[in-house]
Known about the structure:
By secondary structure, the chain is α/β, with parallel strands linked by helices. It has a single domain, classed as Rossmann fold, CATH 3.40.50.720. It is built from eight helices and seven strands. The protein has a seven-stranded parallel beta sheet, sandwiched between helices. β1, α1 and β2 form a beta-alpha-beta unit. The radius of gyration is 17 Å and the shape is globular. The site of NADP nicotinamide-adenine-dinucleotide phosphate has 28 residues, from α1.
Amino acid sequence: MKAFSLKGKTALVTGGNSGIGLGMARGLAKAGATVAITGRNAAKNERALAELNRIQPGCRGFAADLAKTDLIRSAYAEASKDMGGFDILINNAGTTIRGPAEDLTLDDWSTTMALNLTAPMFLSQCFARERIERKQGGSIIFTASLMSEASRSTTAAYTASKGGIRQLIKALAVDWAKYGIRVNGIGPGYIETDLTRPLHENEEFSAWVKKRTPLGRWGQPADLEGMAVLLASDASAFVTGQIFYVDGGWLATF
Ligand SMILES: NC(=O)c1ccc[n+]([C@@H]2O[C@H](COP(=O)([O-])OP(=O)(O)OC[C@H]3O[C@@H](n4cnc5c(N)ncnc54)[C@H](OP(=O)(O)O)[C@@H]3O)[C@@H](O)[C@H]2O)c1
């Protein structure tokens, strides 16, 4: 299946040192891409790289705090220079700060928006400017969420940021289609990662997730590999402006 091959392609995966990002990075590397990952924690980057380099030599890690929005452009430029540019960008790094909306602080709101919405927008702009200058298309993938469609209590800032991602995907897909840059999203259901550890360690909540998910289980980072390869590759050459939910059927029922 040549159309699914990423041989000779380079990809930047933010938050690629753990969880969903690492799952997608593994998929891209297995399909032949050389992958650069980012995360704040250099030790986590190294651990992930050891694994990725066994799949595809030449993968690199870059330590960057993407919530510091004034550093986004320089973080992208450093990684891109080192890797000779990127064909694929996965905007995956994200966080959640849980709490009742009436207690939400301006800081909680700003941090969530900076990492979940502002960084993806301006990393995408860096990527697009480079691809436009080179007269080459590319693929941008955002990690969306069930909260791009619906909400759950104590998630106001997160829900707003992921709802923003949903519309940003459409806006960028429309603006950049003429340059051959496709923009799509992957919306994971409940996936077992560090971010959701408090939830899957809570027996009652975990049981509810399994009951509420038609396929009857939590998702794993490996469940994201296939969709990442599909959207990054020529196999989805006529697909842009969409979110694909990898959610075990969650959104299909209530
Ligand atoms: N797990 C789920 O059920 C689920 C469902 C829907 C959507 N998502 C989304 O999936 C994405 C990944 O989450 P995950 O569940 O895989 O969690 P995770 O394992 O905790 O991964 C989060 C990643 O983001 C990086 N990161 C966190 N803060 C950062 C910052 N300020 N600057 C740069 N990188 C930062 C982390 O690396 P460092 O710690 O090294 O910085 C890590 O690589 C997020 O966008 C999340 O909203 C998750």
